[in-house]
Amino acid sequence: MSTVVQPCARCGARWAVQGTPMHWCPRCRGVLLSPAPIDAPAERRNYRWVARRPDQRTRRLSGVARTGASAATPKYTQIPRWGLIDTPPAPAEVPRGRLAAFGARVNSLLPVTAGLFALAALGELLRYLILLRNRTRLIDPLVLRISDVLVIGSAVLAMAFALVTAVALVGWLVDARRAAYARSGRRDPRAVRTLALGCLIPVVNLLWPGVFLTEVAAAREEPRALRVIRIWWCAWVFGGGLTIAVLLWRTADSLQVKADGVLFTAFADACAAGIAVLTLWVLRSLDGRDLFGRTRTARRWVVAADPVVPVIEPVHPGAGAAARAATATGRDAADEDMPEDRDTDNGAVNREHEEVMAK
Are residues 49 and 104 in the same domain? Predict the structure, then answer.
């Protein structure tokens, strides 16, 4: 028995080669593969095995006896509606914290806090103008009461809203970090207590909020948001130092220093309003939006593969000037020669005209 066989691509039967290799399977009229030894390794074969159903050998096909000439070419009468369904992966479920509902309102709390600090700065500035006028004239008591209500009321409301906004920001930070790490299949390495203490304890909160936000931007791969966080971080540290300076200024005993402290407090309140606006900018930058809440459009730069080739030949001033000078010289020489020729031609034409008239 021959050790060289030809496998059938349709039914899998092996036929021994007894001379010239065959092309069609005697059983099912399928294509016979190239001859190869029975125990030939995979690298010596010029064909591959195809997985088929277990009942491939026993299942009788209705078209086994048909020849290839009588069978019609298979075709579709309409566009097939079947196909592979590539179901998109379901978004990762992010666990919601206890401060999730409170942190969702941070986008509306920050503008209110900025407005209250701006109002407090305006109240302090009006109080300073009243002090300047009081140097030469007496002030109406009603004006002083209105000024006191504006200064004290705006300051208390600004501090209260700042505290509420700080707690809401902690809730937003917890949810943002969980979502950023869940997107890459990880968990937030920092506990909620660590985030809360690092953001709410005075003096300590000058350092850790910037670290927490930087980790969020790195997890989301947002380089633009990282630049915004660095700007905010510098302003945040400056605002903390400014607050400490205002508290120390209040301990002075001199009237002039206290009056200057009113103006200094107005400046500190204005900076606090600006820091609130910067905080809102950071939040929206991490969400892929600008300061006004509009979706940021991505810009993609394409690298040019070929060098720039000028289409029009550049102008050379030296060659152009020489050509114009040569042209002008030629025209002058031609103009000098033209009068004599013109006179000669005109005389010949006039004589011919006189001869015609005479005839």
Answer: no
Residue 319 lies in a domain: no
* Whether residue 252 sits in one domain with residue 125: yes
pTM above 0.85, yes or no: no
| Neighbouring C-alpha atoms within 13 Å toward the C-beta of 90 | 3
Question: Does 270 reside within a domain?
Answer: yes
For CA atoms 29, 33, 34, 37, the dihedral sign is negative
| 36-37 and 14-16 strand pairing | unpaired
Residue by residue, pLDDT tens for the chain (359 residues) are 567 888 887 787 888 888 888 888 888 888 888 888 877 776 666 666 666 666 666 555 554 445 445 567 777 777 766 666 666 666 655 555 566 666 778 989 999 999 999 999 999 999 999 988 888 888 888 999 999 999 999 999 999 999 999 999 999 999 889 888 888 888 889 998 999 999 999 999 999 999 999 999 888 888 888 999 999 999 999 999 999 999 898 887 888 888 889 999 999 999 999 999 999 999 999 888 888 878 776 666 666 566 666 656 666 665 555 556 656 565 555 555 444 444 444 554 455 545 444 44
Say if residue 126 is in the same domain as residue 271: yes
Domain count across the chain: 2
CA 177/CA 220 separation, integer angstroms: 9
- Of 255, 286, 317, the residue at which a domain comes to its end is 286
Q: Token digits for 316? A: 């050379």
Q: How many CB atoms lie within 10 A of CB 63?
A: 10
Is residue 287 packed enough to be buried (19+ CB in 10 Å), middle (13-18) or exposed (0-12)? middle
> Measured at the alpha carbon of residue 317, what is the angle toward residues 315 and 323, in degrees to the nearest 5?
100
Token code pair at residue 105 = 């309102």
The residue type found at 203 is: V
Task: Specify the 3-state DSSP secondary structure of 237.
Answer: helix
Domain presence at residue 250: yes
Residue 110 lies in a domain: yes
In angstroms, rounded to a whole number, what is the distance separating the alpha carbons of residues 143 and 153? Answer: 15
- Note down the domain range covering 117: 100-286
Please check whether residues 180 and 252 belong to one and the same domain.
yes
